[in-house]
Batch of 2 targets.
Target 1
Amino acid sequence: MATTDQSASPDAAPTRIVLIRHGESASNAGRWISGLETCGGLTDLGVAQAEALRGRLAADPDLRPDAILVSTMRRAVHTAEIIAEPHGMVPQQHADLIERTSGEAEGLTVEEYTEKYGIAPWTDWENPLSPGGESGDEFASRVFSATDRVVGEHRGKTVWVVCHGGVIMISAARRWPVASEATSIAALPVVSPINTSVSEWLVDPAGLWRMARYNDHTHLVGVTPVDPQAPAAL
C-alpha cells in the first residue's frame, strides 16, 4: 500500500506517474497468452495507436517526461520507443514492470488454454496460470514494489511508465480494500485499460496516491475500434 515520508516537505511537487498501456500486440489480435519469449510485438494497428498517442503527448508540454520507463516485453518497448522519439529520450527497461507471467502456458491461445486446463485464463487469482507462472498475489506484490520503487527514485518528477493492462489494473486497485479479496483479475474494481490508454497517479510528498485519470484513450478516436471485453493480459 502507499507509504509515507514524514521528512518530505508538504510544499514539494507531487510525483506524476503516467501509466501507458502498450499498443495492440500480435497476441492481442491472435488471442494467445504471451510472455517474454512469445511476445510478437505490435501489430500495424498497434503502431498506429502509439503514433496517435505520440502526437497527443508531444502537444502537451505539461506532460513532458523527466524519465520514460518501460517493461522489457517487445510490445511495450516498441510503444515506448515511438512515444519517446519527440523528446530524444531512451526508455529505461525494467523487468519488474512486465505483465503477469504465465509459465508453461505461454504461447497457448485462449481456447487451447481453456481446453487444456479446464478453466479460462486469468480467472484463478490464487494460483499461477500454469507451472512456472505467478499467482495473482505474487503479481500484485511485484507491481506494488515496482510502482513504489518508481516513486522513490523519481520524487517530484513526471515519469511515463509504458507497461501492461494487468499492471495498470493492479496499480489502480491498490486504492480499494476489496482488491485484497479479489479471486481473479476480473473481480478487481477497475476495467481493463484500452491499448495506449493513459492512466495517471499523483503521489504527494507524504506518499499518498491520488488517481488523476484512468483509461484515457481520446487520442484513439478515428484510429481504432474499442473492444471493452478484450483481456488485459494478452
Target 2
Amino acid sequence: VVAETGSNLSVGQRQLICIGRALLRQSRVIVMDEATANVDLATDTLIQATIQEAFTTETVLTIAHRLDTILHCDRVVVLEKGVVVECDAPASLMAQPTSRFYGFAHEAGVLTGLLEW
C-alpha cells in the first residue's frame, strides 16, 4: 500500500512513477533532471531504451551527471558555472580530445561507449 504522500516509496520508485507519468501524458517537451540517478544500472538501461523508443517526436531535455545517460542524445550541452562552453553531438565532442566532454568521458571511463555513437 502506497502512503498518500508516497513517503513509503524509495527515491528510485518515485523517479519511476514520474517517468511513467511522462510516458502517459504525451507532452511535447519532457525534462529529465537526474531522472535515473537513484536506480540500479539494469533499470537505468531499461529506462534509457524506453525513453529512446517512446519519445521519438518529443523534445527531451536530460540533465545528468552520469555520461552513459546521455550517450544517445542528439546534442550535449556542457555548462561551466552556468555558461555554455560546448554544444554538439556526443560523437563530435569525442573527436576533440581538448573538449571538456571528452575529458569527462575519459574520467568516467566511458570513452569506448561514446566512440561507438
